[in-house]
Amino acid sequence: MVTGQSPHRPTSGPRVDDALIVCDNLVKIYQVADLEVVALQGLDLVVERAEFVALVGASGSGKSTLLNILGGLDKPSAGKARVGDFDLIAMTDADRTAYRRNTIGFVWQQTARNLLPYLSAVDNVAMPMLLAGSSSRQRRTAAMTLLEVVGLADRHAHKPGQLSGGEQQRVAVAIALANDPQVLFADEPTGELDTATSAALFDVLRSVNEQRGVTIVVVTHDPQVADHVRRTVAIRDGRTSSEVLRRTRVGADGAHQVVSEEFAVLDRAGRLQLPTEYVEALELDDRVRLTLDPDHINVWPDEDGANDR
Amino acid sequence: MSLVSVPAVLLMAAAVTVLTVATALPTLRRRERPSALTPGRSLRRIVAEVMVVVLAAGALVLLRRRGLVTGGPEAETSFDPLLAAGPALAGFAAAIVMIRLYPWPVRLIAWAAARRRHAVPFLGAKRLMLQPPAARLQLLVIILAVAVSVLSSVLGYSIEEGRRLSTWHEVGADYRVTTPGGLPDFDAVAGPELIEAVALGVRIGSVAPRSSTMSVPERVAFLALAVDDFERVASGTPADPQLAESPVATQPLADIGTAANPIEVLASAEWAGAEPPVVGASFSMLIGARRTTFVVSSIRDDFPSMDTEEPFVVASLASLNAAGSGLRPTDAFLRGAAGADSIIEDSLVIGSNLISRRQLFAAADDDPFSAGLRRAFTGAAALAIGFALLAAFSGPAMAAANRRAFLGYLRTMGLSRRQALALAAIEYLVPVMLATAAGMVLGIGSAVVFQPGIRIESFSGGALPAAVLVDPGSILTLGATLVGGAVLAAGVYGLVGRRAELGGILRVGDE
């Protein structure tokens, strides 16, 4: 069942004021030759502190554009975007550098892109700290601690070429955590990994999220990721379309059960995207008829209109 | 005496061969390539490099032994292309060794930087250590091009200075007047602004010395000179013989020219047909119808205005006059401005001859051979600089895509724009500066090592042996041009990197 949810509703959704990440009516337009491509068209998103969120979408949905904006790698064309105390629209170059250095961390899809191939694992993890100006001793100690967190302390002297893909991604997680960021962005972190290694990486991410309180935002096109996170936000046509929340509840037999519930996202303008399978099942097209009951809204196919056409 | 002996050259060749193999061994032993950024080196390449080094060493030894032009004065002169390729081979070999050595100082920088809080030198040094083969090729081109340019500059400058020195030596001053019939009063001819100083001398082309205590040649050329005046004429010039403190200038005049007080003279080092003169040996000559006794007080390889091919003797004119020779001056050495020629010429009696050092140099410099040589050296230097600049610019362009991804990755970690620019400066400037310095050392070293084979004096046309001289101005200009080019390249590529959209560089998911 899909339930409507608004990011601005304080009771049922995340609170905007306390949230770590807030995107409000975010628009990104790319100019490609003579064409304007609208990658994000009024996207709303709220992520609370210490959340573990997945942004899921098909190819071209705008999820990587959103990640680049949230990562301070790209600027939106309009709207509002805030991460912690940083207004991503109004940031100066210096702010942007400080933001990337201290507030966020990245894990990319391609394992080779996450690491400098000529540095050992511990030197790779120490690199963000070196960029931030930490001392040699601080770097070494912190890097070793982070490698322990991701379970690779014994591989600290190995270079990326001597590590497996999964190990490289775990080192990448350690790198992303190097300057103790508030949020970790991961772009298809398991894209090059097999199922078992992917699960192991998500275990590491979950552990980091739970034990260090780091907010984690994973961008992926793989819907199965929903099994690993508490909240999955689906992005379609440059907007958030639905969310899946996973909750653990105690059943009648006393056993813990994981329950997933899917919500449609209602934006500030009152717009709602109906799930594709619902639209197809009822052959909804162009217009629908709405009726309001005391506790819900009914959506009906516009049969009269269809006959008129 | 040659500057480098054959055993030393062989030792050097053996050392560089061992060094080449030693620096290549670690990469030969390495079984796996840790990444695409650490280029592997093939055994074939190492063998080729060792061969070049060995061939270059052989060519170097042969070139120093035989010279560039083989065949004696009687035999037909021939040009050996293998020997002619010696300098190029040696340069190539030296460049190979320098490139093998290049990672070591860079590794040292990386090691030192890793212990500090500065990311940029550490990253820059690491990047330099692991440059792809194309970047090493860039270094090779810069080293060789700079070496060729510097060698051309050094040879050109040495030849020009050798020619200048030989004209100073030939004239002995700015102007020399020789006359059989008396000299004018030059002080009255022109003011001190045109003629600053004049020294008179008596030249006798051929005199027969006699001695019962030493071996003497049949004939010697004789020059008696107003020593103090000549010091004023030649002071600070390449013709200055530094006579002021010598016994020739300071000798007491009582009973001079007799066995009791023989006239002190400078003698040429070689006395054709006789044993070389020794200091303290005395001899006599008939000067102005009077037999005068002389004693050798010092030996010189050359003396201004005296032919080095013939034995010569130089004495003080004051001593000669005190000995009662009664000879009238035949030569006048003048220190004067460039425009004094015509005024001096107008004052001379018929039969007198004026030689101008400047005119002599200009004539030698303008002859077709010298002009062609100069054009060749200038062209070679300019071409080499062009190649080096091209290499300095094209190197970064070849690695641009890889570098953009690398910078993009670092920017996500918080590399600031300033740090990115500094990194570009290190990546582009350090190799160019190191290669330029190595090329300069190689160019100057080649000139020194090959000087005995090249024989600069045969191009400068002088009788004096020409030295290898470095013109600091042209070397600094060359260095500044290349470093300026590298700075420009760093600026251009740094700015291009700055403008690149990070999102575009790093976007992995599909849109």
Describe the structure.
The complex is a heterodimer of chains A (309) and B (511). Chain A has an 8-stranded mixed beta sheet with strand order 1-12-11-10-4-9-8-7, with helices on both faces. A 4-stranded antiparallel beta sheet of chain A has the order 3-2-5-6, with helices on one face. Chain A has a two-stranded antiparallel ribbon with strand order 13-14. Chain A has helices at residues 63-70, 93-102, 111-114, 121-132, 136-149, 165-176, 195-212, 276-281, 303-308; strands at residues 2-5, 21-32, 35-47, 52-57, 78-83, 86-87, 104-107, 183-187, 215-220, 231-236, 239-250, 256-265, 288-292, 297-301. Chain A has 9 helices and 14 strands. Chain B folds into 3 domains: 1-101, no CATH class; 132-170 and 357-511, no CATH class; 180-351, no CATH class. Chain B is 57% helix and 13% strand. Chain B has helices spanning 6-29, 43-66, 81-84, 86-101, 103-114, 119-129, 133-171, 186-189, 227-234, 247-250, 317-322, 341-347, 357-366, 368-398, 400-413, 417-454, 457-460, 472-499, 502-506, and strands spanning 69-70, 78-79, 175-178, 195-207, 220-225, 263-268, 282-287, 290-300, 312-316, 331-336, 353-356. The radius of gyration of chain B is 32 Å and the shape is elongated. In chain B, helix 14 packs parallel to helix 18 (472-499).
The number of strands of chain B is 11
Order of helices and strands of chain A: EEEEHEEHEHHHHEHEEEEHEEH
Given as residue ranges, the uncertain stretches of chain A (5+ residues, pLDDT < 50) are 6-12
The dominant shape of chain A is globular
Secondary-structure class of chain B: alpha+beta
Contiguous low-pLDDT stretches of chain B (5 residues minimum) are: 30-40, 507-511
Physical arrangement of strands within the biggest beta sheet of chain A: 1-12-11-10-4-9-8-7
If you average the pLDDT of chain A, what whole number results? 85
The number of distinct helices of chain A, counting runs of at least 4 residues, comes to 9
- Shape type of chain B: elongated
